[in-house]
Hints:
This protein is an all-alpha fold. It contains seven helices and no strands. It has one domain (16-181): ABC transporter transmembrane region fold, CATH 1.20.1560.10.
Amino acid sequence: MSARLESAADTINVKISDRYLTSMIGRFLRPYWFQILLVFGMLIAVAGLSLLMPLLIQRAVDGPIRSGDLSGLIPYGVTYFALIFVIFILRFAHTYLLQTIGQNALVNLRQELFEHIMRQDMRFFNTTPVGQLVSRLSNDIDALTELLSTSIVVLASNIVQLIGIVVVMLALNWRLALPPASLPRL
Length: 186
């Protein structure tokens, strides 16, 4: 008589909205709002400084290189390498800070999940295989770790970089910047 045990999670199909899930993640990130603002400030600074580098090269080519004044290149070179160093420090700082925020938020989430599981009655543990419970918790936490520490940073960084590129293009020469914006979408 081998009856297949189905877990409570398999038999109950609950619809949970994305808004609810976002607010749930936000609840764990709320204590770190100042650090998150600091990270996004660093992202904007990195994008802005990264956009200065091609402008610096353009000025060096149009100025000292065109006129043959090689000693005039020294300030541009020093500024360029200083920008590289500052960008490296800011990228390291925002990556480190965001990883720390994500891991601290996930520690709180893990603790709350553990406490929730410990409050379950014995019937839940009799009907839910332990391996399935551990697997679901581990996989879901790993997915949230990936989301909080990598995906959001890459998405935010790319959006800020794209907006910065468009702004710089429009500032340098709006007539040349508009044709790509007016091309038909494929």
